[in-house]
Amino acid sequence: LQNPAAIFNMISSQCVGRSVCVFLVATYTDGRPTENAEWFCKWLEEASTDFRYGKSYLKGLRYAVFGLGNSVYVGHYNTVGKNVDKWLWMLSAKRILTRGEGDCNVVKSRHGNVQADFQAWKVNLLSRLQALAKGEKKSCSGKCKGGSSCKDKNEEVTSQDASAEVTCPFSACFREGGRGTSYICSDLCNSQMVKMNGGKKTEDDGERREMITPALREALTKQGYKLIGSHSGVKLCRWTKSMLRGRGGCYKHTFYGIESHRCMETTPSLACANKCVFCWRHHTNPVGTEWRWKMDPAENILQESIEKHQNMIRQFRGVPGVKAERYEEGLEVKHCALSLVGEPIMYPEINTFIRLLHRHRISSFLVTNAQFPEEIRNLEPVTQLYVSVDASTKDSLKKIDRPLFKDFWPRFLDSLRALGEKRQRTVYRLTLVKAWNVEEMMAYAELITLGQPDFIEVKGVTYCGESAASSLTMANVPWHQEVVAFVQQLADMLPRYEIACEHEHSNCLLIAHTKFKVDGEWWTWIDYERFQELVVVHEESGGQRTFSASDYMSRTPSWALFGAQEQGFDPADTRFQRRNKTKDVSGC
């Protein structure tokens, strides 16, 4: 699709030949086509209504369309595929097969996932192409408009693969592809499928599908995930590997005193309600606005998470450079970062999962994307609760996070208010994307006033390589000096907030509320043993005895402070500089 003139000539030439043009098109943000297909869709739309082309411009062209989309986006599902099909038909092109629709939403996908949707459509396409090659034609009685069956409706595709597929009762009309009847049959097919499924296009609640499809399992396993049950996963963070070798910990070690080699990065829900442009998972995880999948017990998820994490740690036994004492410590999980992928707060048993973590004396760092305000309010006390604040205006948030909810902005603001109601430690997590969201200083300050978080983490976006799901490049990654300048300007606008810590090798800084500055010293670290004691009292009292962030704070060491010579690197470790190696971008 890179040469418009060549494409126009190619399409025109097919009008007089025996070829068939197959269009595979995806629907992107707000129902728009992908970037490389924009010009084609624009041309096709204009041509379909331009009298200079005429209604018979593509007469003789035989075509088929398969669209890719996600039915979670209710108002824009497969819009591009539908439009391309319509515009071709308006120009008198001849449809040889009903439009196929691949649904990334495994809950509503007719065949379980988008790959299976395409395979089922492809079987029918190949069968139709074979019929065309033999010169076969199937006529239509013309009674489809009234809703009666076509005379050829009982003819079945004699393909072993196709025998298991749901056959459209009006498929004969699609095979004929005549103008006028095709779109009528398309609508009839949809309504008939509803009737065949008892008035529903999806399965009953008692027959919920698993979140992890075979294709998703293959993709995530290839990326290094250890999958758990039907919707959870765990992965070894690169900072865990680094600290095992004595090469330094992550920014949470610098800011809050966690032991990175004892931190387990996991999630009880791989699904997310956003499709952020900077997602380091390249959108291989499913999306959704509510829990519609089978659910695994929290006890099983935690047990398997710990076991799989320990197995990954054991792989470092005897590896040159790994410190023996840290290897032994690493086998005992002390922290859990619920930030691996997806939206952990979507998991209906998230509170049970958190309580189980604390009973194992594992601290909890939970990250949410600010789209589930009521779930935030109902959340049990966690060691530290994060909200991702990826943009400060409605337009930029829509552009960067690409949320599924139509009311994403009210949900976002209400989530910040819900965060402000929490008594335990709360954090705003800002990811700076150069040329996208670094110009909205005043708007960020207003959002901080709304939620009054204890801390504000500001981090430069991590470039994760090229992806069809994102247009980011290295030019969007701010230099550390640029992040520092942004943080300094932001802190100057916030009363009772100051810059506390820095982690230069993560391109990250911490702004803290001055209530954590006691007698001129910062206390941003966490007393983890004290937190576990407080949680036990809270649980035993049935939630009557609560506690606040100031009850389990600890003094921050000098090397972690902003302006220190170490720039946030623990002097107990030895910094290692990679040379000519692919950077591992995984981490919390």
Automatic annotation (TrEMBL):
- Please tell me whether the keyword tRNA processing is annotated for this protein: yes
Tell me the ranges covered by the Radical SAM core domain, including all copies. Answer: 256-500
The UniProt entry's GO biological process terms, in alphabetical order, are: wybutosine biosynthetic process
Q: Is Glycosyltransferase among the key words of this record?
A: no
Per its UniProt record, the required cofactor names are: [4Fe-4S] cluster
Question: Do you know which InterPro entries this protein is assigned to?
Answer: Aldolase_TIM (IPR013785), Flavdoxin-like (IPR001094), Flavodoxin/NO_synth (IPR008254), Flavoprotein-like_sf (IPR029039), rSAM (IPR007197), rSAM_sf (IPR058240), tRNA_wybutosine-synth (IPR013917), tRNA_wybutosine-synthase (IPR034556)
One Pfam family assigned to this protein is: Flavodoxin_1
Question: What are the alphabetically sorted keywords of the record?
Answer: 4Fe-4S, Iron, Iron-sulfur, Lyase, Metal-binding, Nucleotide-binding, S-adenosyl-L-methionine, tRNA processing
Q: Which residues form the Flavodoxin-like domain?
A: 1-126
PROSITE patterns on file = FLAVODOXIN_LIKE (PS50902), RADICAL_SAM (PS51918)
Instruction: Give the enzyme's EC designation.
Output: 4.1.3.44
Give the Gene Ontology MF terms in alphabetical order: 4 iron, 4 sulfur cluster binding; FMN binding; metal ion binding; tRNA-4-demethylwyosine synthase activity
Reactions accelerated catalytically: N(1)-methylguanosine(37) in tRNA(Phe) + pyruvate + S-adenosyl-L-methionine = 4-demethylwyosine(37) in tRNA(Phe) + 5'-deoxyadenosine + L-methionine + CO2 + H2O
Hey, which pathway is this one from? Answer: tRNA modification; wybutosine-tRNA(Phe) biosynthesis
EC primary class? lyase
Q: Which PANTHER family match?
A: S-ADENOSYL-L-METHIONINE-DEPENDENT TRNA 4-DEMETHYLWYOSINE SYNTHASE, S-ADENOSYL-L-METHIONINE-DEPENDENT TRNA 4-DEMETHYLWYOSINE SYNTHASE TYW1-RELATED
Its biological purpose is as follows:
Probable component of the wybutosine biosynthesis pathway. Wybutosine is a hyper modified guanosine with a tricyclic base found at the 3'-position adjacent to the anticodon of eukaryotic phenylalanine tRNA. Catalyzes the condensation of N-methylguanine with 2 carbon atoms from pyruvate to form the tricyclic 4-demethylwyosine, an intermediate in wybutosine biosynthesis.
Assigned protein family:
Belongs to the TYW1 family.
- What name does UniProt use for this protein? S-adenosyl-L-methionine-dependent tRNA 4-demethylwyosine synthase TYW1
Q: Which organism is it from?
A: Nothobranchius furzeri
Chain's gene name: TYW1
